[in-house]
Structure formats: C-alpha cells, structure tokens
Amino acid sequence: MTYQKLKDGFIEPVTEPNQYLVFAVGHGRFCLPLMAVSELLHVEKPRRLPGTLPHVMGVIAHRERVFPVLDLRRRLGMNVIWHYAQQGMLLEDPPLESPLILVVDRVFGATTLPPEWRHLPEQPIWGIPLEFMEQVIHAPDKEDPIVQIKYNLLFHPSHLN
Predict the structure, then answer these.
(1) Can you give the residue ranges of every domain in the chain?
(2) Is the pTM higher than 0.70?
(3) For residue range 19-73, what is the model confidence (pLDDT) as tens digits?
(4) Hey, what CATH class is 19-114 in?
(5) How far apart, in whole angstroms, are the C-alpha atoms of residue 102 and residue 98?
C-alpha cells in the first residue's frame, strides 16, 4: 500500500470519496475517510476535566478554539502510553456533533482504497481496522456466517460503546 505524504500537517482538499488516512494504534492499522480529517497536529498534555469518560484525556486550545482530546488506545482497551507531543488528528467532519482531536500512535499518510470500500455503512469514529476490513471485503462468499459475524463486529461494535 502506498501513502501520499501530507505537508505541514494540513490535509489537501479531497476530491475522491475513497481517499483514506491510514494510522496506527498499538499493533493495528486503521483508516478514516480523509475528508473527515482537517489537520494533523502534535498534542501536548491536555487539561483534564472532571466527570469525563475515561478515554477523554481532556481539552486543549488550538487555533483559538477548544477541542476535546480522545485517546484511541484507551478507547480500544489498550495500555495507555503517553508521550508528550503525541500525534493527533483534528476531525471536523459534519457527521460529528462537535469537532474533536483523536490521539493515535502514528500517521502513515493518505491512500486511495478500492472503489468497493465506498459503499460501506457508517464507520466507527475510531476508524476501520485495515486487516479486518480486507478479510470482509475480499471474502469469496459475503453470505458466509463467519464473514457476517466479522462484519457485525466491525460495524456494530457494541462492546466499545
């Protein structure tokens, strides 16, 4: 898979709906639609807020606005490893109720995925596991019960809500 490099943290305007930003969390690779990500940035230690969910690290001020910061490792049940200046993605896509910053381990870059990936149902905010997705999309028999179980786990992960 080849990745388009992103310059100075800013995302070029997206013209094709099947362009995705590929990133890593733990040992997994994930992707989000490129049009959902408006900027890549380094996240300093956010200010904690009392009473927030465990995966909400706090808030930071960025470009004269305040954004909640979500730790994707914690959201997916992984060990939390905090380093100053973590890599983050500013998500401002209209389906979100409000913009947020998603902290990930590493951003690889942008790539164009096969056209059949465009016809997927709504995607989880934390992205799609690429290896898992490839198994489901390229399965010889989409009606196979095992493929259906994987599909439901991917798109309806109630255990992560």
Answers:
(1) 19-114
(2) no
(3) 778 888 887 777 777 877 888 888 888 888 888 888 788 899 988 888 888 887 8
(4) mainly beta
(5) 13
